[in-house]
Amino acid sequence: MSTIRVQKPVIHTPTFQKWGIQQYYFLQKVQALGIDVFPKTDDFTLDDWYYYTDLDGWAKILPDLVLNSNLYKPNVFDCEDYGLKAQIECSLRYGINSLRLCIGKVPKGWHGFNIFPYGDDKGIEGLMLFEPNAGFEWAGNAFQIGDNGYIPEAVFLSSRKERR
Q1: Entry pTM
Q2: pLDDT at 39
Q3: Which of 25, 40, 47, 157 has the most CB atoms at less than 10 Å from its CB?
Q4: Residue 2 pLDDT more than 90?
Q5: HEC assignment per residue over the chain
């Protein structure tokens, strides 16, 4: 059953399936695709568990994470800030912390956007990209890595490789 939470603005929180995966396994999936991570340290982890959903769940969440392009302020609130805000809002509103800030290349050069895993109770099936800035052509869409010229280079995901 869905719930309604009172906040500004008032939004309806949809229901969707949610699963967790240990940080180590999320890191493996990202690095298997040749994507680096930051920060470059292995003495701590940002989160021990990451929560994700399937593509149907993401289809309910992502439209709410498209941010007004009027927020843009050069060197103050630009592309990586859009990605970080979408990451934070996803965690706060939906309890899904696996939508991560991603830095990479797009046809116009370096850019900040988001990457996220999808799957089911058996684990992560794959990773997709998301453009949170409403001012970009692909905003609000989930798409495969490499589509639309988006090539992720690094993800905001700690690099600790061994499980503790």
Answers
A1: 0.86
A2: 82
A3: 157
A4: no
A5: CCEEECCCCCEEECCCCCEEEEHHHHHHHHHHCCCEEECCCCCCCCCCEEEEECHHHHHHHHHHHCECHHHCECCCECHHHHHHHHHHHHHHHHCCCCCEEEEEEECCEEEEEEEEEEEECCEEEEEEEEECECCCCCECCEEECCHHHCEEEEEECCCCCCCC
